[in-house]
């Protein structure tokens, strides 16, 4: 059993510093002419059709072969390879139910099978969950720093949803949907606290620099294409 891993998502708070200084055989060949009209043709390889069911809750994954012809044996090596790949796909924020199913079909083809793949999860058929861990405090009191969440990978969102989104600076962030305008979505932090504090930094020449720091929540416009999924369990 693989150890559980999870993607870290940032519940980001902006930090603003007010100071003077501030983060991829060739060989020889010969042409052969065959004049015989009785030349034997190689028979095409027949691929066996099977069903593959991938079950996951975002943390664990099982892979099972179904609808197997009576005279066909499914290699355990193939199932293990599928399970490992499915696990990695589920842990990846960029995967989708379609890409996971395609990966299973590619592996099946290596073993001379045509696979009809079904993905099942707590969210239904062909619905892909995603495990993540909150990093930061901008979503308190709803989400706490270090808390596990399970999201459904989807771009079907509505105002009020807590979503995981890509951000060009902070990677993955978790925020609440405040506004949706066409293909854009405005994301806000639940934590609206603004705090100020003094930071002292000793420079290389021994001079102590004093900075006034203001911490404010990160609110941001993102494209709906940046949305990874909607947090469902926390």
Class computed from helices, strands and strand pairing: mainly beta
| Low-confidence regions | 12-39
How far apart, in Å, are the first and last alpha carbons?
A: 24 Å
Number of strands: 15
Percent in helix? 10-25%
Number of alpha- plus pi-helical segments: 2
Percent range for β-strand residues: 35-45%
How many independent structural domains? 1
Pfam families: Peptidase_S24 (PF00717)
Domain Peptidase S24/S26A/S26B/S26C: 118-195
Organism: Methanobacterium veterum
Protein name: S24/S26 family peptidase
What's the layout of helices and strands?
Elements: E1 7-11, E2 13-18, E3 48-56, E4 61-66, H1 76-91, H2 97-110, E5 113-121, E6 124-125, E7 129-136, E8 148-152, E9 162-167, E10 171-181, E11 184-188, E12 195-202, E13 208-217, E14 220-223, E15 227-233
Parallel strand pairs: 1-7, 3-5
Antiparallel strand pairs: 2-13, 3-4, 5-6, 7-8, 8-15, 9-10, 9-15, 10-11, 11-14, 12-13
Helix pairs in contact: 1-2
């Amino acid at each position: 059993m693989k150890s559980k891993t999870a993607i870290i998502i940032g519940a980001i708070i902006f930090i603003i510093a007010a100071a003077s200084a501030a983060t991829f055989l060739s060989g020889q060949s010969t042409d052969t002419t065959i004049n015989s009209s009785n030349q034997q043709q190689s028979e095409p390889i027949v691929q066996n059709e099977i069903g593959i069911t991938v079950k996951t809750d975002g943390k664990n994954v099982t892979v099972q072969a179904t609808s197997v012809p009576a005279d066909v044996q499914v290699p355990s090596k193939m199932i293990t390879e599928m399970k490992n790949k499915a696990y990695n796909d589920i842990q990846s924020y960029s995967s989708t139910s379609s890409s996971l199913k395609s990966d299973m079909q590619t592996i099946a083809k290596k073993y001379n099978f045509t696979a009809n793949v079904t993905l099942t999860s707590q969210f239904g058929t062909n619905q892909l969950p995603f495990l993540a861990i909150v990093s930061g405090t901008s979503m308190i009191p709803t989400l706490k720093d270090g808390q596990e969440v399970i999201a459904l990978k989807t771009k079907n969102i509505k105002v009020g949803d807590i979503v995981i989104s890509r951000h060009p600076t902070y990677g993955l962030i978790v925020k609440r949907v405040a506004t949706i305008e066409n293909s854009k979505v405005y994301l806000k932090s639940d934590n609206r606290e603004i705090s100020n504090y003094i930071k002292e930094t000793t420079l290389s020449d021994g001079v102590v620099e004093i900075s006034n720091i203001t911490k404010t929540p990160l609110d941001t416009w993102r494209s709906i294409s940046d949305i990874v999924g909607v947090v469902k369990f926390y």
